Every structure is written in structure tokens, then in C-alpha cells.
Amino acid sequence: MQLLKEKIRQEGKALSSEILKVDSFLNHQIDPELMQEIGQEFARRFTNDGITRILTIESSGIAPSVMAGLALGVPVVFARKRKSLTLQEDFYEAKVHSFTKQQTNTIVVSKAHLVATDKVLVIDDFLANGQAAEGLIDIVQQAEATLAGVGIVIEKSFQEGGDRLRRKGIRVESLASVAALAEGKVTFAGE
Ligand code: 5GP
Hints:
Layout (H helix, E strand, L loop, with lengths): L1 H10 L1 E2 L5 E2 L1 H5 L4 H14 L7 E5 L4 H11 L3 E7 L8 E8 L4 E8 L8 E9 L3 H12 L3 E11 L4 H7 L4 E11 L2 E4 L3
Parallel strand pairs: 3-4, 3-7, 7-8, 8-9
Antiparallel strand pairs: 1-2, 4-6, 5-6, 9-10
Helix pairs in contact: 3-4
Guanosine-5'-monophosphate binds next to strand 2, strand 7 and helix 5.
């Protein structure tokens, strides 16, 4: 998605060879117009897939997901991060190791908001090693719902998550694919 790539080039900061900071439009401040374009692009790619629900994870997946949900006319559910490990029978739960925070969270989704008849689009802001997406997919499977695919705003294709998901036959649609990061420089796939 050209507009997103331009925004990353203008405002993204490669903090290291692994981490891209996009706090000015996605992870702290949010650019609503860009989010709307992102939502419409996800909707365009999944328009014929019979999506009934979008599943994301708090907090940075929420903005692009809401815009996609608006464009597709479906509700958006966000998995919540829960510190307590106590089991609750009304929730699906999965463990997710956070790449940026280097900690493991238990994420939960109420059974009321994801059901077996759902066709689910999983959306997240970044795809790195795939832990967040796999945790969400685990929850879709626990609900016995159908996974339509995974929509990612920024995939870092030099990390293993995208390949791992695609090898499992999962459809992954990334709006921008970053092939390499060096301090101060972002290289997109195909450049
Ligand atoms: P994964 O679970 O695929 O390893 O990492 C994805 C999660 O880590 C995303 O939900 C995102 O919040 C965070 N993340 C991973 N890499 C980056 C990055 O380069 N920049 C930012 N801002 N977040 C990242």
C-alpha cells in the first residue's frame, strides 16, 4: 500500500536492525485518515471471504481493525491482556510472548464474542515472529470458528512469523512488507 509505505518512510524510525518505531501514526498517536485507508484496503482484500468478525489484540491492533470492521460492516473483538493466570471458563485464552516487551502475556476473549459460526479475519499492527497472530489463531480454533486469514499493517519479512504462518497454509495479507531495517533506513520488500 503506497500511502502507508510513504508514511513509514517519512515518519518511521528504525531504532535498530529489528525494531521500527511508528509512534506518530500507529502505536501512540493515530492518523485517522491513514487508518481509514488501511481499513478500506483490508476490506477490499477480504471483501469476498464472508467475514463475520474481526479479531485483534489490544492496543495497537484496535485502530486499523475498527476501520476494517467499519468498511466490512462487521464487529471487532480485541483480545485483552490478562496478568492473572487463573482459568475462567467463560473465556478462551492463549499465551503470547511479546517481541517488543520481552514478556509473556495471557490473552483472553470472552466466549460471548466469538462463536463456531464465525468466519474470522485476524488483524494486527505488526508481524514479527508471529507470536501474537498465533495466539489469536489459537483462540479462533478454540472457538471452532473458521479463520479467513490474517491482515497485517506492517510485516517485517526478515523475521520468521510471516513464513511460519504461510507454511501452515494461512493466508497473510500485509499492507507493507519491510525487508530490512538499519539505523535510520527502511528497505521494503522488492526494493
Ligand atoms: P510477533 O508476535 O509477531 O513477534 O510481534 C508482533 C507484536 O509485537 C505486534 O503486536 C507489535 O505490537 C509488536 N511489534 C513487533 N515488532 C515491532 C516493531 O518493529 N515495532 C513496533 N512498534 N511493534 C512491534
